[in-house]
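Hi L., both proteins are below.
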Amino acid sequence: MNYPLEDAYAILERITDGFFAVDNRWNFTYVNTAATRLLFRSREDLVGKNVWIEFPEAVNLPFYEQYNRTVKEQVPVSFDAYFPPLETWYDVRAYPSPNGLTVYFRDITKQKLEEHEKEQHYKSLFHQNPDAVFSFDLEGNYLSVNPAMEHLLGYREEEFLKQSFIPLVSKDDIERTLEHYKIAAQGTTQRYQTKVLHKNGHIVHVDVTNMPIIVNDKVVGVYGVAKDITPRKQAEDALQTKTQQLESLIENNVDAILIFNRQGQVTQANKAFEDLFGWTKQEVVGLGLYELPFIPTEIIGEVEAFESEVNKGNHIIGAETTRLRKDGLSLTVMLNISPIKDSSGNQDGWSVTIRDLTEWKKSQEILQNTEKLSVAGQLAAGIAHEIRNPITAIKGFVQLMRSGYGDREEYFKIMSSEIERIEQILSELLILAKPQVSKFEWIDLKVLLTQLITLLDTQAILNNVEIITEFPPGEIVVPCDENQLKQVFINYIKNAIEAMPAGGKLVIVVSQTNDEYVSVQFRDEGVGMPKEVLAKLGQPFYTTKEKGTGLGYMISKKIIENHFGEVRITSEVNKGTVVDVSLPLRNMQLVNQLNKV
């Protein structure tokens, strides 16, 4: 349909695009209103004038090249170009005509600025990203990399662009990495971990995300984002190594070990546990604390007390108790119980280490009995002298009675008294020498010490030693094995007497230091000991005595420790020695043992 020329001009005046026409000599023949507005020139300034003279800056811009191409090749062209004098971007469409050229153009500066801003955002996201960002073609060749990628693997951008990713992947991960890449190239995003090679040869662990690049609904390449996780992997490997070491330590430990979770269920048992008790791991793992078959029912109260302490975050160290084997045999064991905490410091369970003390206890009893017999032998001379005196008196009164001289009733009283004295001395000696089963009872320390002084008083007198006691009023009762404490105190009293060959005073002081402990001190005025001797006390077979075994102090110290007490010795040469024994007035484990009786 042909429009009249006036109608055509009317249409061109109404359109918002700029429009102008030039003849074969590049002179403006028509400029619409929109064009004058976009070019900031009036129609009168342009019509009849040469476009390249009026806009000389355009000669060196795409406008000149594209317009000449349209005229020369007689083909329409479309392009975007920036015109610096007006600081404006134009979208241009040029059409050839037999008489010249017609041009439609519009201001796209706003769109270009928006596109440029988006492009800058993209470039900023790409270049400033702390993670390595890159793109591939469908064959896996690098198309672009950001600075973080250069830093990650040590190659420059131009070195990446000359190769594919395959040579940079660790050999043992190539097959798996290629599979992920192929799936991404088919349109599905992939995320995985792999190992890549740094330019200097070391391994870098990376977490990779591959995303398809889709243009017009077609995958044309693959984007990649890689995060360096080498420190994390090293930490994980170190943690795994430590875990394996811990597992090995638990499994190969000579002591039986059980691990409980926070609910009190067994989660792990080692081989030493199987060997010691006869139950397999499978038989105990998953059982609750109070379902375990090797805990005797009569000590449930003790177990509850231990559980309460551990749940408070406390450790149980060196607790002596009993456990049962699968065959019914009772074992004396020592427990060490420790809370297990997670990374946040919250309790996650506890561990129990169990050591069989059965044979050790037997050997300790043998040592103690040996030492008791040794002490009894050393006391024999003093005891013989002590017994000889009442026996002589008895013999004399028997002779007087035969002769009919004196008051027989009075003689009988004296003889009976002397016989009781002999019985008391022999009773103490037999208690000391006779092996006895360990038995904890509530014992008054003052009574126990008085009995021992009766036994050893003769030996003290023979050595010109005066035994002085300083006891507080009333009872001082402690949970203890009477026989074992007697052995300890006899050892300390004998040592004190022997340390004063020229005589002196031995002061025995009993005092209650606080509501929890009582102190028993043995203070002599003997020769004392230098620091180097004090440092060696307690070493087996170390002794300063000519006929000593060196076991007395070691055994005595162990007995006090078994009573959860402590021994402290201070000494000064030629001024004497103080042995201070501290014993608990109440101890949970000892009280539990007393409660079983």
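That was the first. Here is the second:
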Amino acid sequence: MHKYSTILIALLTSFQALFGQALNMTLEGSWDNTSYSFNDCWGYTDDFGNEYAIIGSKTRVIFFDIKTPTSPVLLAEFTGSFPGISGANSIWRDFKTYDRYAYAVADQGSEGLMVFDLSDIHNGNISKVFQSNSIFTRAHNIFIDVPEGRLYIIGSDTQNNGLIVYDIKDTPSVPSLMASVSLASYGGYVHDAYVQNNLAYCSSGFDGLFVIDMSNPASPNFLSFDESAADGYNHSGWPFDNGNKMLVAEEVPTGLRLAIFDISNSNNISYLSSFRDPVNTSGSGNPTYHNPYMLEDYAVISSYEDGITIMNLTDTNSPFREAHYDTHPNSNYNGTDGCWGAYPYYPSGTIIGSDINTGLYILSTTLPLTNTCNNGIQDDFEIDIDCGGFCNTCECSAPRDFVFSDLSNSSIQIDWTAVNTAVGYEVRYRESGASTWTTATTNINMITLSGLTPSTTYEFQFRSDCGNRLTPYGTSVSYTIGSCERSIELAGSQMSGIYVSQQFIRSEANLQIGSDVEYLTGDSIILENPFEVDANTDFLAEVNTPCGIATFTGQNEVLNFTHIAPSPPEQAFSLVVNKDENVFYLVSNDSSEEFFQVELLDKDGRPIQNSKRSTKSKLLKVPITPELNEISISQGDKQYLLPFK
């Protein structure tokens, strides 16, 4: 049973101060499934600025849209099942993101490595694009050295006393093995690691903290190590103070302090001090800290029975707890119940946490937490997971929204959406099934390719030149050359004339003249056939272009909005169902600016999901779910109920 309870959240917010559940933090939203037991969490921000949460249960990897923190929307759940691979029932799962991909492992079962494509997550679409257990079947953790484009598998069954390293720099969807290397002589088992620019800070359990140069993954170079005064189990750590210090949690035995190490000289690291500041000062025992993360001098820590705690480390001689939200209020510490994971790197300042028993928590804080990559450039000491996996993913990422036009039987023109801050682009292409690529570059968001084989399908991949780096290549796009009457997508200011459209969405739904219609890549809007436009009219259409006529040269941008002018509306809201794509469109015919609330209901009238939208967005695209029975719409004092057939 899913629990989306705004009443419960309101009550918790009202009483949390009385019971000491929160300090300088507020619960915005939550999600739980009482049949699940949860583990770690991670976050992702797409290049539109939308924010998402990833959380693990024993059997699943679960994705949420949290751009409205008070109303998290479940997008997808994936098991580890795959042809020839059984899904695991694992207490431990771990996730990281890189460019437009998410990576996942489990430390029980035989799922191996899973890769998820998040390129279309803003449309609610997520796909598992890779899974393999040929190199390892289980692993405790993963980490991504973003500047180097390397994925590290940590605590695996096949390299238990070492690290497995994959190259994901150019093709994130297909990790390429670089090395599986033993570190038995450098501390042995690695429980977790933080890696940047080939320097691996390895949390090696009771052996302590090790620094290893992984420039050559097949031949690691040991630099130094140290232990804390408590000599506990070095569980995980995160650097701060511009990379000069590292905060470490020592999970075992329970109740140990957080440790601070001096890592300014990687050849001679040293333990500095330790501290703790429990939320529950009246109970017995001390908190067990799990996973610490740093934003400048603030430590955001998943702290088991203390929930999420935020420590101020401005003065490392006198650290103190400045905020907390206790996901597991209790009077005595009993061990490792409560908050497993946290993620504080959203540009909005949102913080998420995962509680073992009660699921996803979405929180805000009054503290001035600073995303260190606020200028979109990796300059100074950046923590690299800002903006969902790459320091400047939010500013400069691989291009999207491609428009292919035949110029002849052997040449094509390709246009795409301009990428903010990109100084150029690179495209590589090959005939489908070929092993080698041909590469071409351009300094604008358009390219012409000639000398292609007629009536042949090609595979294309694109990436951006961000000035200081090249992005990974985006998801492959296929196109067949020289059909001469191919349908192509066009948008933006076009020349006047008569065009012939191919209608993918046909409906009796009507829209106000001059409405702004929000559409997603691949959608067609209701248009007459043929239709006529005036000069400089914005429109989206599927049109035919005869061979040899480059009708739409120099197109600068694929717009997010298009103007249409159909007949006057007959009803306030209409439905357009496209079962081939497993989606439906809710069309608003209201010209007012009043907000409306949409709830998707099952056959018992229970909500499946909801979202608040303005009527300025006239076309809302929603995935079809098996439970969907009807759509409830509230707008001011008006109620509408549309049956779903």
